[in-house]
Amino acid sequence: MVALGTSTTLTAQTGYFVPSEEARHQRTFMQWPVNRRVHPDPLFLEMAQQTIADVANAIADFEPVTMLAHPDDHASARRKLSSGVELWDIPTEDLWCRDAGPIFLVDGNGGLAVSHIQFNGWGEKQVNARDSKIAAEVANRLGLELIPTGLRGEAGAVEQDGHGLLLAHESSWVNDNRNPGLTRGEIETRLLRAYGADRMIWTDGVWGEDITDYHIDSLARFTGPNRVLINLPDDPDMSDPFHVAALDTHDALEAAGLQIEVIPEPTIRRVNSIDFVASYANYYVCNGAVIAAQFGDAETDAIAEDALRRHYPGREIITLNVDPLGEMGGGIHCATQQMPAI
């Protein structure tokens, strides 16, 4: 199912909007993972921390990075982080800054604010006593207005092009674990206001099969106005709800008249778990570079890198082994949140 709607937006009321990710940044925010209820295996937690450090250090070669962590965790984090990564005293549980971190708005005249979509642990599926406060605490530290949206959810569940268009799976929003009692139309109106956008494409997604209820940023990403990269299997399994939902999203984007490029999923992987997320689409665009995953499949890794080079000309393409993030159901984009330049 696909729907394309319009609504009164935050842009019309205040001039604020969320810029595209490829617009220039002041810095990148990230979160240091520490919670042992979330990560009970100390060896895996160490791997997750090193992976987050690798991503942060790669970004720090291109722009400032701020790592959020409890003061008690600064010493251990500092040992893994480069000098280009600053530590702030904001306590964290897990690493998913795209979802728990602040969504920054600009007004084009030097104004900056935070659009507050309340994180609730993907529908209270995970402990979030600290992470649910992060967006507000960052806004407070920066002295920025926190603009309420009336929504619970995550920025990883909505893709935006910075030019008025949003894309989302219903399963991550029209869901009683996030927004009970709200219709899709009501949620759409609030999302459009939250991002300063005026159009939205919905597709069904997948309810209840993963912790995120199928975040869009592991499937499809805007690379410019009306232009999309999407990660699809070469040989879809029509008994797999994620494959069916991915193909439905592709068809919806095509029906909306967008320019689409398909990147195949890797067929050779270092991790063969059925729950492993091997998404080339879950990359991060920073100043001068794209930080992306490679999965050990020489052919598809090269196809993805070439596609990113075409879509983001003039930027370096930096590829990393971030398999621990895939084992946790996410990727590089999920772990980062940009603060735009003003």
UniProtKB/TrEMBL annotation:
Protein EC: 3.5.3.12
Gene3D superfamilies documented for this protein: L-arginine/glycine Amidinotransferase, Chain A
Keyword Transport listed: no
Top-level EC class as recorded in UniProt: hydrolase
InterPro entries for the chain: Peptidyl-Arg-deiminase_porph
Signal peptide span: none
Coiled coil segments of this chain: none
A Gene Ontology biological process term: putrescine biosynthetic process
A single GO molecular function term of this UniProt record: agmatine deiminase activity
Record's keyword terms, sorted: Hydrolase
Name of the protein: Putative agmatine deiminase
The species this protein was found in: Octadecabacter ascidiaceicola
Name of the coding gene: aguA
